[in-house]
Design brief:
Length: 341
């Protein structure tokens, strides 16, 4: 088993912050590694950009009788709220103020999940792990709305007490697929819709996903013996079996109709995804999750570089290759824990 690519680079000791106290409803059967039940906790699918995660999320949007899907909720606080962490809109106060998420804090998001759970539905969160971390170069600190300060060994903005309330799962995709897809969304003509006008390597999200994974293992919030890690290739090659196994592991009742989406499902998804216009057009145009019609072609480094240079130009190709190579060890580390299909 490979060791974490981040060994030796974890955040060191910090003074203990006050824990955020809240009581998200949970009902269930199986106990997690910390002795608490997991099936019924808010479900957190932690991922990175362009991991086919929105197609995955659409499957569970069909289950509106038992689940309430939260589409990238922590992006509200990370990019736009008064506690914003990202550099992307740091010097663009007008965009932040104009956002519907301008008042979102990490505490208000947690409180919102709590309210949904109390009303009897299970929260299903699909979100980027990097939204829980200060960007590179910034010290680890708990979000001000959750008490500020810091916790020893915790590099995220959420107190450990809050992290323990989630049932965490992970969704990954090979960087050679995800990074070029992300880059495409940050250059014209797609960037005219997404509003992301520059490619920022620290938004690739793999390193933060590993840091979150390692933190949760250290704190016994998850166990490497039974953690659920999905690879997007498995989802695309074996959609029904992947969804069946995920449901079994997370206490969700599988229904075949989850894989086929009607008009009501499409309208619901369109409203949920509107906050990130331009990022999810392909999945919004689809009416089902089905397997790939043909196997992925084998690629060499040379053929990939040639393809990226033709699509984006030679300078962009170098940037993409650098970011892909930097994140392959993170992907491979997490992939060793993936759910076998």
């Amino acid at each position: 088993m490979a060791s974490s690519p981040l060994n030796g680079h974890q955040n060191g000791s910090h003074s203990m912050a006050s824990n955020h106290s809240q009581s998200m409803a949970s009902s269930s059967s199986s106990a997690g590694p910390d002795g608490q039940t997991t099936a019924g906790r808010p479900l957190f699918v932690a991922t990175h950009p362009r991991a086919c995660s929105t197609a995955f999320e659409r499957v569970f949007m069909v289950c509106r009788d038992e689940l309430q899907c939260q589409h990238e909720p922590f992006s509200d606080a990370f990019y736009f709220g008064p506690e914003f962490l990202s550099h992307r809109y740091r010097h663009d106060a007008a965009t932040r103020r104009a956002s519907p998420a301008a008042d979102a804090t990490y505490k208000s998001l947690l409180d919102g999940f709590d309210q949904v759970q109390r009303e009897g539905k299970r929260v299903f969160i699909k979100d980027m792990a990097y939204y829980l971390f200060p960007p590179a170069g910034q010290p680890a600190a708990i979000a001000p709305s959750l008490g500020a300060g810091s916790e020893s060994g915790n590099p995220t903005v959420l107190p450990l007490d809050a992290l323990r309330r989630f049932h965490f799962t992970f969704l990954i995709r090979h960087p050679r697929r995800a990074i070029p897809s992300f880059y495409r969304c940050t250059v014209p003509p797609v960037s005219d819709i997404t509003g992301f006008t520059t490619f920022m390597a620290d938004e690739a999200g793999y390193e933060e996903l590993v840091r979150l994974f390692d933190l949760l293992v250290r704190e016994r919030i998850i166990s490497t013996d039974n953690v659920t890690v999905l690879d997007a290739d498995d989802l695309l090659d074996h959609p029904e079996e992947t969804i069946r196994q995920f449901c079994l592991r997370t206490g969700i009742k599988f229904r075949r109709e989850m894989l086929v989406w009607g008009r009501d499902d499409a309208e619901y998804a369109a409203k949920a995804f509107a906050k990130w216009n331009g990022w999810h057009d392909d999945v919004l145009k689809s009416n089902q999750l089905h397997g790939r019609s043909q196997a992925q072609k084998s690629c060499t480094v040379e053929s990939e570089d040639k393809e990226w240079a033709e699509k984006f130009g030679p300078e962009a190709q170098k940037v993409i290759r650098t970011v892909v190579n930097a994140n392959i060890p993170h992907y491979e580390y997490l992939r060793q824990f993936r759910m076998a299909i």
